[in-house]
Backbone:
């Protein structure tokens, strides 16, 4: 039976990416598209690249009848998301793509996001959506919190290494290079083409990026002690892609072994042979994540690099993968699209 | 039954694009990948974005056993293509993506390509691969000649207008803007990133582009008299996409009517409402073609604009669409992927 | 003696480009920078690339003392510009970069810009700033109206040809390809990097672009009769550059002759040998304009292509060239910077 | 008196950049342009962006009469450079832009470059061309070895910090992001626009990049002990620019103090206020280097980021700055061009 899907926040990039992926998903049908600011418009007008699809028009969230909906993706800004989700039916399956339910500790949420959480009880209920590591919990969950796209990339590198105890915990450095679609469709001077094209820079330098809240929570949990990494994202003049370069202490071969063991059989994680490194151009538009390990010339030091598409594996693809699990559909359904190169 | 597919010239961009599309095609399996210059390498090495697929290694064309192959895509350079195809089994179904079998007249071939044709009898046998206009012939064909990517774009605009007699034939101007992947993976100084990025220019100016051979052949045939258009392509710093701007004499509404009539029911051609214009970003990575019509301020003049992806609808997507027809598979199979935006 | 310069609208791209050019101009000093919306900020904050310069802070226009100013560049939006300029001292030399004083006919202004002109008497006083064609008037002028950047490019191709009577006037088609900085630093969804990068499209199709007002005025004046051209601009994913492709009836060699005659001795206009075409990458960041002529395969038809940098020769470079003339400085001073390639 | 300049290797990007800079230099004149592979061609043909200049045609190096030459820039590939320079007049002033004379130790040269040095005595004579730190030696030198562009960027960050003893020496990590023009105008598949655009990746991972030879030599010399850093360059889809992110142990304010002390009065090095970070878009096309310092959330850790243009401050601009010193011209002459933004 075809599952009926609603998408809230359908006028943003992650909303559009969900529609793109679901368009060829044989087990899902888009029943409602919510977007308060553009309610009344057709999706073809807001996103002409989806013009060939037979989609419902955008409506306000209030106008949606959730009674026939099997699962709702919520691609709204954080803070708005917790308010909207609080008001949805309590038995509705939800995959939230915002930051609102990623952190389990209300205090941590307030520290990183600057406002008290208004749905603390749901924070406890939510399952963290990093599929490969929370698969069983996600299958059983009602509310899944999609991870940050940078947070996902860093974790794909570091979780297996921390869990296996093959790297030092005191000197982990994560240098990220992110494409601009990660910033969303918001009108900011520094996101204009003329500002970004042909230039690049670091941002949120010094440990102020909010995805550190996720790193702190997850890495400390795995290690059984506080783990704090250094993390600097850089904005790159490309639309899609995250490349994470991790500098760690440890033996490259042991590290590669830990990654291969953890990701053995995973459909979307490709661990490269020792010495090979990934490129964002080789995962663009797809749900795949490539990870490579190289030994440094300095003994006992290694570089681990991961690449994924922030809108797909880092966000909407992850969300669909989780929704498949929650709806008892094959996990890879709708997600085996090959990357688009060149 | 799954059809067995061979791809010759698998180390080029159109070869890779064929693999990308067939990767999620339920009715086809890639049985052989030929690429003389890179024989012996794995596809993952030549195209790391296809790393997740279970593909045969690249081999020389001579090494391929064609006995179990249902259809062969030939994505070789022109001239090479006619030589290779001449030597293939005479009952093998072939979709050729080169220029070698596009022109019916051996003299026209020699004029535009500079060498005599070495397989003139097959030139006569080949069917021109512009699906929407040669569908029945393609279904019955053994050898289909894929069109030039620029030639396809221009014809999607002009064929219905010439056929319906709604535009003047003496003053047709076609100004094209092409992404760089159309030039292939060849090592030329003017295709380097540092040369192309942030700049753009016209090339083959003055009526010297080879795709004019196709325009001349097809438009004259439709009109029943000689039709010669002006055609200038421009190279744009983007990887994929062709945007064709046609300047014609005629009434915009009549022109739109002719397009809508011809493309009614076509799965991949989207005719936009009067006054709307397409963008290459809205068809990127897909098999769709968007066409828009606008009336000029000068009475009796109109602008018709089409956008498609040169590697998909302009080349490998078209080839797969034709292969589906030749193999009695549903025409749209494997081709309904939504465009990738942003 | 060093001339004292004020720039109003210094927080936009054309304002920043003026500062860049004047930075190495030996005969000018920037005495005041006006920008109401960012008043109080340092220029280094608004434009960090100018950080090495010793510049006055941004102030409101009201705060500027014009008594010691020799010349004022006005880089404000149209409509604002006419209001601000009306209130400036009546003997102040002004180069206006907005559209407000380009059209001599108040009715034509209202038609193209949608509001009545509020400084009609100054409209009459203003000299049109296309340096090569209004040099003597500019030298004597108090108020010079900078041309539209697209309008400049089209006129560099067509003025000599219309004046010499070497092309037909009924079928002139101008297809433009523009970089995104021409749209300015305004916050619009369609100017975001994620929207523009890797895609391109036509805009203001059908004869609705405001620069047509300039074409109509100037070409009709030269021809001594009404001349209306077809003009379609396209937005290209590059920051700087305009490439104009003109399709005309006429003999290529005669056309080239007319261009060479008119531009003989011009320091910034480079007419290429017959058959060569320009590229925007070869004029980027400079005040040069390259023009090439090619005969079409259709007898009596030719293509003429021009390239210039919209921010330099199309706007701020032109403005400085005119200011040099108005201040009796050598015309090329500060403007001989070579293009930046790659 | 105008100095007569020769440029060998004038058909590459650094050669063209030298011509661009010298074009507006009042104290230099280009007397000879050598480029064996393109000898006989005009510079306008090889680099149309220099078309407006009155330049000598390209000749073979053998054809150049060095008797009237005051200084020769050598922009040839390494290995070729040492052979050519060995054969030049022994009293000719030379600025070499290749890697051939950067390393003082012949063994280190052979280790990093794979071939024995053929001009070992000149290796000893050569002065390392990092202007701010070898100014006096450069003034007196006959042969100056331009630094690697990545090597320059890293040293601008780290030299003052190592010299002042304000950072730990055991855990220095340098993550670089480089534009593609650094790879030169060579025909490699991975430098094609279609390969690079919209994608990015690390290369020479694990401590294999040749510029490490320079880091090792210089940092160990300053520290008086062996210093080995970790260094990973990444290729970014932009034409110009290097952004270096250094992760160090030390106090941010102390680090900033050391940088400000060392660069006080330097015309081209801009140290930003604490907490601000540079962007490559703000130095593009110029000889400026911006450096910013940020404290990490982890006590005792800091991030220092530098940006410069690889073709200007990282190569040809540096070379011209050194040539000015060697010819007793004002150091900043020809180099105060403001960055090109947007």
Residues:
């Amino acid at each position: 039976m075809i599952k009926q899907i609603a998408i809230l926040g359908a006028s943003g990039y992650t909303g559009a990416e969900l529609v793109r992926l679901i368009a060829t998903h044989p087990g899902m049908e888009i029943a409602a598209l919510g977007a308060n600011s553009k309610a009344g418009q057709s999706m073809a007008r807001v996103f002409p690249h989806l013009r060939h699809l037979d989609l419902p028009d955008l409506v306000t969230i209030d106008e949606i009848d959730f009674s026939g909906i099997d699962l709702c993706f919520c691609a709204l800004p954080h803070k708005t998301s917790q308010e909207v989700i609080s008001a949805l039916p309590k038995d509705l399956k939800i995959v939230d793509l915002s930051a609102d339910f990623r952190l389990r500790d209300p205090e941590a949420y307030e520290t990183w996001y600057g406002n008290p959480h208004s749905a603390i009880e749901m924070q406890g209920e939510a399952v963290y959506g990093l599929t490969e590591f929370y698969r069983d919990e996600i299958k059983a969950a009602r509310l899944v919190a999609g991870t940050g796209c940078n947070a996902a990339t860093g974790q794909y590198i570091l979780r297996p290494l921390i869990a296996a105890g093959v790297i030092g915990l005191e000197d982990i450095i994560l240098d990220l290079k992110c494409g601009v679609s990660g910033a969303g469709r918001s009108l900011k001077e520094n996101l204009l083409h003329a500002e970004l094209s042909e230039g690049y820079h670091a941002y949120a330098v010094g440990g102020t990026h909010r995805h550190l809240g996720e790193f702190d929570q997850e890495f400390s949990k795995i290690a059984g002690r506080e783990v704090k990494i250094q993390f600097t994202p850089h904005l790159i003049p490309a639309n899609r892609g995250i490349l994470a370069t991790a500098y760690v202490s440890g033996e490259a071969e042991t590290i590669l072994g830990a990654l291969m063991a953890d990701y053995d059989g995973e459909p979307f994680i490709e661990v490269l042979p020792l010495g090979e490194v990934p490129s964002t151009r080789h995962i663009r538009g797809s749900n795949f994540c490539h990870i490579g390990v190289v030994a440094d010339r300095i003994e006992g030091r290694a570089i681990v690099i991961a690449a994924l598409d922030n809108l797909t594996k880092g966000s909407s693809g992850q969300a669909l993968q989780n929704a498949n699990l929650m709806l008892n559909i094959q996990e890879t359904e709708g997600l085996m699209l090959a990357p688009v190169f060149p």
About this structure: Residues 273 and 335 of chain C are 24 Å apart (CA to CA). Chain C touches chain D at residues 13, 16, 19-20, 23-24, 47-53, 181, 197-198, 239-240, 268, 270, 278-279, 281-286, 288, 290, 311, 336-342 (CB under 8 Å).
